[in-house]
């Protein structure tokens, strides 16, 4: 986490021919991953202040979040491939530099369009940076327990970044300004950038340097149009032209992307890779899990503030047990994988989360923290931590070393795009149900329905894991 990166004493840079210790490599790349995931959720509690400060419209407010998530997911594949071809350290540094500069631009923005552009650039920087973080870990540690522990730490830090985003955003907004939810990235990013330049070592795939730029643009445009169409259904309805036109256009662009990839000499996403059972099944499971679990923080924050009357800071503090649970689950996962196997643990973790979502869906207007939020929240978060590590480990263990960056990009794209699309769909479900009544009770009922639909999505994910995930991946479960 950022505090760890700023308080830990770092050793002298390694001399030529020597490599940095494993703990330092893990610290640097996980600090970068923390910033990337933190910015997915940190702006949520600051949105009202952003709206009043810049005069944002309702649509503009939505795109403060969507601009980051969509460009993050859309360019993730390009980032993973670039890390393989041009060097993992070089791409890590480039992505972190872009992310840090874009954070500064967003923090000083004076117009809505400036903030949205800055968030888009942040998303591109994150897409370049994030795959490199996991690839550096998987290529820095040998197959076995050391690699599994490193992946678990990476997963825990990323999960923690998403979990504490509400708390960090609430504190910064209440005591400083909404601008600091972006500006805080600047000093931390600069420190990690310096450490990466000094201590990380370079590695790359020995092949010709070629990037599939048309594929990246088509993938981003297609995903963006689909997400925009889903968002439009909240106000225009599923049967309206305003929603259907971008949805169908997005699907057409995605079809064009697949056609380009099938014919490209150096495709961004080699379609033959999905013939590997570990890669295809793990990405499908991550997509569904992300669609269900990404919305947990969003709806809990709305429930606490809009129904129970919590302040942003109190809502952020209420997420501390959730954050600890997801980190504990991620850290326990390697030991449990060794005993249970990756597939069994992934299924058990998803089942725990589904039970928590079913429980959380019973929320009402008279809910309390101890009686309504704490128990199901811990169950959902702990299950998410348990399941994410084995799914990621299965996916990366199914690819050759030269394709690790691509697979890392795929698994992150699945997680983030699943989350963006899932949030759009579940928000529509919640809003439509809330319109059937009035006041906080209707809102609570709508949020509860969203959790129940999310639980159903997790049940589908569990069925997929049981039938499609490999029984055992030696790279993921055994030393």
From TrEMBL:
Q: Which NCBIfam families match?
A: efflux_EmrB
- Superkingdom as given in the UniProt entry: Bacteria
Pfam families linked: MFS_1
User: Where found, per UniProt?
Assistant: Cell membrane
Q: What is this protein called?
A: MFS transporter
Q: Which Gene3D superfamilies match?
A: MFS general substrate transporter like domains (1.20.1250.20), Multidrug resistance protein D (1.20.1720.10)
TM helices/strands, residue ranges: 23-47, 59-79, 91-109, 121-139, 151-172, 178-201, 213-231, 237-260, 281-300, 312-332, 344-361, 373-396, 417-435, 447-469
Membrane topology annotation:
Multi-pass membrane protein
What is the species listed in this Swiss-Prot or TrEMBL entry? Streptomyces ramulosus
